[in-house]
Amino acid sequence: MKTMLNVALPKGRLGEKVYAMFEQAGFECPEIKDGGRKLIFENPEKKVRYFWVKPSDVSIYVERGAADIGVAGKDILLEYSPDVYELLDLGIGKCHMAVAAKNGFRDNPQKTLRVATKFSAIAADYYSKIGRDIDIIHLNGSIELAPILGLSDVIVDIVETGKTLKENNLSVIEKIVPISARLIANKASFKFKGKQIEKITEYLSKITK
Ligand code: PRP
Known about the structure:
Layout: E1 5-10, H1 13-24, E2 40-43, E3 48-53, H2 58-63, E4 69-73, H3 74-80, E5 85-89, E6 95-102, E7 113-117, H4 120-129, E8 134-138, H5 145-148, E9 154-159, H6 163-167, E10 170-179, E11 181-185, H7 187-192, H8 194-205
Parallel strand pairs: 1-3, 1-4, 7-8, 7-9
Antiparallel strand pairs: 2-3, 4-11, 5-11, 6-9, 6-10
Bound molecules: 1-O-pyrophosphono-5-O-phosphono-alpha-D-ribofuranose.
């Protein structure tokens, strides 16, 4: 008898798209669309249990086995390097990790560059590869404020439409890496629930965007 497959979905706009893909792949759980504050939903017939998790926490649930599989942004996977399998690029939630600064910004290579970001590891890795000395200022949101208020010279952040940058007179200096949503799996679950995970991966792979 198959056991339940626990799936961590990222709460929010991306999560709704992700659930729609799981539904299309044949793993529906209609109750999830009722709205409300409930966090766990299951369809015993399909042997699947979904739960809404803060997007940046999905990889923690999966790495520790509280979820067998989940969907996380490549940004989170690059930043935290969780010990999980990355199974599939779902082709949604597409954006870029980029360096941005005030319009007309010129870098002075003699000075340590002050970089504000939520993604300290990605920023440190990028600047060490190009051999640039930086001072990281770790923030938790509204990163765009930092260069405007003189807290930093540049930011390393996610750019999707570019609207936030534009409306704050900032522009992209350099694109670091493309980002999209990835299906990830717990390593032990991949062994013990391999059949179920492979099936879901295969069905999802047919409908990736
Ligand atoms: C992200 C990112 C940018 C914005 C980019 O913010 O940090 O602020 O989206 O999108 P755009 O290019 O389409 O304007 P998020 O909504 O995740 O909030 P936070 O970083 O401020 O927490």
